[in-house]
Amino acid sequence: MSVQPVDQLVTRLSIMNDAQYLMEIDHLVWNDNNTPCVLQYGSRQQYLQDHPPGTQLVAIAGEQICGYVGFQYPTHVFTNQHVYDIHIAIHPDYQGKGVGRKLIESLGEFARSQHVRKLTLRVLSTNKEAFQFYKKLGFVENGRLPEEFYINGQYVDDILMTYWL
């Protein structure tokens, strides 16, 4: 991948043709340090079943997809549809360049247009960089599940965070 400048970064909802690029980002980003279970998709079709078009906002630099933020309602209960539960992944070559911030800002605008009032996420206590990044964006810790996971021989807290729109 040749790294494109991010000064003209564009975001849009995901489309079917994005799946292969998003799978590649997942493969590069997710590991035992930042998720309790690394998901492996055997095919593009399997990926699209879990992440249908329009359930992710993608960031594009030049012609290159460099990150995404996935969003969904936390439950199927109508009274819970003012909340998006999110997860975010940025290609390693684009981390620290403002892509994550742009994605969260763009998702905030989109979410408001859908009458969503808050974004929630979960982050492992071992993922200190991500935790600091979310705090810097304005997410607040609103819960912690101590020793929720046992990963690589250690107990890891699951931190619940919220961003109010």
From TrEMBL:
Cross-referenced InterPro entries: Acyl_CoA_acyltransferase, Bact_Acetyltransf, GNAT_dom
Residues spanning the signal sequence: none
N-acetyltransferase domain residues: 9-165
An MF annotation (GO) of this entry: acyltransferase activity
Domain of life: Bacteria
Assigned EC number: 2.3.-.-
Gene3D superfamilies: 3.40.630.30
Residue stretches in coiled coil: none
EC top class named in words: transferase
Keywords noted in UniProt: Acyltransferase, Transferase
PANTHER family: AMINOALKYLPHOSPHONATE N-ACETYLTRANSFERASE-RELATED-RELATED
Protein name, as recorded: GNAT family N-acetyltransferase
